[in-house]
Amino acid sequence: MTIARIARTNPPPLPTVRNLIAIASGKGGVGKTWLAVTLAHAMARQGIKPLLFDGDLGLANVDVQLGLTPERDLGSVLAGRTSLGSVVTHVSAAGFDVIAGHSGSGGLAALRREQLRGLSEDLFELAASYDCVILDLGAGIERTVRALAAPAGVCLVVATDEPTSLTDAYAFIKLIVQDRPTVDVRIVINRAVSSTAGERTYASLVKACQNFLKISPPLAGIVRHDRRVGDCIRSQTPLISRFPQSEAAHDVEVLAQRLALAQ
């Protein structure tokens, strides 16, 4: 095998992209996509120019939550019919851009390694046009999901107080740190009954990380449970637009401020 062939087969790791924020969970159903949408909206309100990228190729639903019907989505890019920049949709009501996923495509697992790397490189190039890119990853701990997350400047792992959520969040943290030891992992506790309850949930998760991984991922934020979140998802309206004074909206605004300061 020639050196050139080896280089193509084993390309060097992608560099860290400081303005890329990956949002992961390990387990589905913890409000990850809702958090990604609301975080993008909160950042836009703070004068930051965000791009929200729906990286859940198999069960993409960012466009559904926003009530969008994009003419083109990521499927067109993966099929080679167009470029990544040409499928950007502007959400005028919320002030940020979206790249919609391709629901029913079979997910990231269907992508070849070179396709996944090419997609990542195109996204990183596009990131230069934005203050931050929020990457909504698919649920799970598969290699392809972790490969998209690894170059992120910050990886937010979303968990709730459910035991399965904590177990899967820990599993994701374990694997992403093995893949890229320098990754900046932070934890977001969602749907907390109270801030105090959220702190207890975080303490349980970080204790497992300390005991078995010898790391202490910091707490990025706690988002309190709010029944109005469900109302907004059903009406396909961003929470901050409909209920800007709600507890959950306030908590995500605080999270956005913290992330902006850390950029």
Write the layout of secondary structure elements.
Blueprint: H1 3-9, E1 17-24, H2 32-45, E2 50-55, H3 62-66, H4 74-78, E3 88-91, E4 96-99, H5 113-127, E5 132-137, H6 143-149, E6 152-159, H7 163-179, E7 185-192, H8 195-213, E8 219-224, H9 227-235, H10 239-242, H11 247-262
Parallel strand pairs: 1-5, 1-6, 2-4, 2-5, 6-7, 7-8
Antiparallel strand pairs: 3-4
In the predicted model, the low-confidence regions spanning at least 5 consecutive residues are 1-7
* Broad structural category: alpha/beta
The N- and C-terminal alpha carbons lie at a distance of 42 Å
What's the level 1 CATH class?
Alpha Beta
Mean pLDDT: 90
The CATH homologous superfamily is named: P-loop containing nucleotide triphosphate hydrolases
Question: How many structurally independent domains?
Answer: 1
What's the CATH architecture?
A: 3-Layer(aba) Sandwich
Question: How are strands sequenced across the largest beta sheet?
Answer: 3-4-2-5-1-6-7-8
What would you call the shape?
A: globular
Please count the helical segments: 11
Tell me the total number of β-strands: 8
Order of helices and strands: HEHEHHEEHEHEHEHEHHH
| Cα-atom radius of gyration | 18 Å
* Major sheet description: 8 strands, mixed
User: Looking at CATH, which topology would you report?
Assistant: Rossmann fold
Helix percentage: 40-55%
Strand portion: 15-25%
